[in-house]
Write the structure tokens for this entry.
Amino acid sequence: MKKIVFATNNTHKLREARALLGRQFEIVSLEELGFEGDIPETGTTLAENASQKAHFIYDRYGVDCFADDTGLEVDALGGAPGVYSARYAGEKATYDENVTKLLGELEGKQERSARFKTVVSLLLNSEEHLFEGMVEGQILPRRTGSDGFGYDPVFQPVGYQETFAQMNSELKNSISHRGMAMRKLVAFLKER
Ligand code: IMP
């Protein structure tokens, strides 16, 4: 089975990727690759960050790899937190602190539409390919559900009565931003 490195330290993302790609590819984690530490993320767009993360690993190990960057865009907040979703409540903010800040900013607001966007950067034989995914939804006034991570407990995708944190991973993957980008990645790799 062809091996490919997923340049992430996020175990939730790794699990999602293995569920999506695991039949066709062996997804190698950074730990398995022997890399410890954080990958810099200093871009101002999702594409820049995804590309930066993939190049960081490719430059050091010379292996085919991919990385993703995801942001939550909230219309009532002018698209924030967007590319800064991980650091919304501060540099080392926890998921919970970020959600609390988001709920505070939206308190009393009726307009709660939002979307997750993901960009995946794949470096294959040193060539870069980008894949995008998106899911529309709304931010609920309070947390519901305990699965998933990040903003999942307050994000309800259009067409569903549950948040991402109430869904099993198969359902979330089948409609999520990252699922969509990853399926494009798989389709591309299969053609190769
Ligand atoms: P990252 O920079 O791609 O790791 O993502 C930025 C932030 O977006 C993360 O810290 C999470 O809070 C959030 N995030 C990314 N993917 C998801 C998801 O699938 N569900 C909920 N939140 C997510």
In short: The first strand starts at residue 2 and ends at 6. Residues 2-191 form a domain with the Maf protein fold (CATH 3.90.950.10). The chain has one domain: 2-191.
